[in-house]
What we know:
Layout: H1 2-5, H2 8-25, H3 30-38, E1 40-42, E2 49-51, H4 52-77, H5 84-109, H6 126-136, H7 142-166, H8 173-189, H9 197-221, H10 226-235, H11 238-265, H12 279-307, H13 317-327, H14 331-341, H15 346-386
Antiparallel strand pairs: 1-2
Helix pairs in contact: 2-6, 2-11, 4-10, 4-11, 5-7, 5-12, 6-7, 6-15, 7-13, 7-14, 8-9, 8-10, 9-10, 11-14, 12-13, 12-15, 13-15, 14-15
Amino acid sequence: MSLLRSARFPAVMLLIAAAVGLILANSPLGPGLAELKSTHLAIEGTPFDLSIAHWISDGLLAIFFFVAAIELRYELTKGALREPRKAMVPAIAAAGGVIVPILVYLAFTNGTPSATGWPIPTATDIAFALGVLAVFGRGLPGNVRAFLLALAILDDIVGIIFIAVLFTTGLNPVWLAVAAGLVLVFFVLSRVQPRTTTDAALRQAALLIIGIATWAAVYQSGVHATIAGVALGFAMAPRKADRLRHRLEPWVNALVLPIFAFSSAAVMVPSVSMSELSPAFWGILVALPVGKIIGIALAGYIAQKALGTQSDSHLPIGDLIAAGALGGIGFTVSLLLGELAFKGNAEVGAEVTLAVLAGSIISMILSAILVTLRARSYRKAAAVDAT
């Protein structure tokens, strides 16, 4: 299980799963795979009749967001973001890492229907970014990892807000109220102390049933169903949530995220020339690696100067640029945002998926080089100090 919890493992699994999905989709097995993804699985006696692809993106991915929400709350209350002053620099850097990629994307797509995809290049994949940092960052000081973690978490919060606000269709207030009521029951029940082993088992079963019912109510409300995972993750009693996260994390890393990556990346490469690719493709391809570096590094540098960051948490410009490159690894949330933004346009949706993969890979390569150089510099400095 230790391997499944390591920072490197999720990044490797996601990359392999995405590569396999892309290869199979463009092989003779491609049509069969596309048909499988579009196959509908219905639950008898309910309104739930989703394709396999939607069961993965709307259902399975809710587990990932549940685990992510628990981690977000921990960092906000006990971790890297618990002190407002320490959180200010990564918060401002994260804002730059959202605004600049949006501007870059709109520079390519302004005045076209593709402009609606502006949220796509704003996300940072925590698993990938920390995985690259773990592989290539031996010797980097701890404040670099803390900065990146805070940055990625804040990016995730922005992504969650975008999903909840921008991709809500046909809002049903009644079902939304039902979902809110169920979250409240979940909140209270998770804090009830069972007296016996039987009581504990019954409470766990009840929490599971309420969790599933909450997901169903959120789905029926018109809000994207993954938001149910976020709400439940924040609502659960902290100690129980942390223990459950510890149990779920290996399964999320080994199954949930790779399955989503495989499904999302399983698109056929459009048979068009470079000049015929949509503005959305070029906007994402440039916004992820370039927009993130400029936005994060520039905003982080200005924030440190303006706030007078203490020396023990101050990051040199080289570290900020490396963190910006790591921030360009959008992957999971960017793929989901791409699916939502271009749900009705399969051709552009396929190009967007390819752009997210390509932009994230470029960012991975850039960040691997930059992190290696920064780590080498710190190791040399440490060796000089030791002599």
